[in-house]
Amino acid sequence: QVQLVESGGGLVQPGGSLRLSCAASGFTFSNYVMSWYRQAPGKERELVARKLNFGASTNYADSVKGRFTISRDNAKSTVYLQMNGLTPEDTAVYYCNAKYSRYNYWGQGTQVTVSS
Question: Among 19, 33, 26, which Cα is nearest to 94's?
């Protein structure tokens, strides 16, 4: 069965940091483009960061560029999102996504709340 298990979300103060992780199973991880999306209440889902299956190619939303870093470990079938300099505008449910050809898988989502 396909499974994406996220962890690392929680409550953090403005200016703080969190690292999200997403452990994948049930498919050939190295073939897939891995991404992080987020959705805040009343807002549309937006792409936060994307990393290709091989190589260093990445893509970031302008709002997080320079603060967030996506990385992947194909040997562990895990993708990470390092989030630094967090602000209340980063508060959202964060989703892990795996995509290849017609296949498109989603994690359950993890809540990130930035508040003092």
Answer: 19
Query: Token pair for residue 22?
Result: 């997403």
Take residue 111 and report the two structure tokens written for it.
Answer: 């809540």
Look up residue 89 and give its DSSP letter. Answer: G
Q: Under 8 Å CB-to-CB from 106, ≥6 apart: which residues?
A: 4, 95, 96, 97
| pLDDT tens, position by position, 5-16 | 999 999 999 999
Phi and psi of 30, rounded to 5°? Answer: -65, -20
- Residue 21 tokens read as 């992780």
Handedness of CA 112, 114, 115, 116 (dihedral sign): positive
Q: What is the DSSP string of 23-64?
A: EEESS-GGGSEEEEEEE-TTS--EEEEEE-SSSS-EEE-TTT
pLDDT along the chain (116 residues), means of 10: 96 98 96 96 96 85 97 95 98 97 97 97
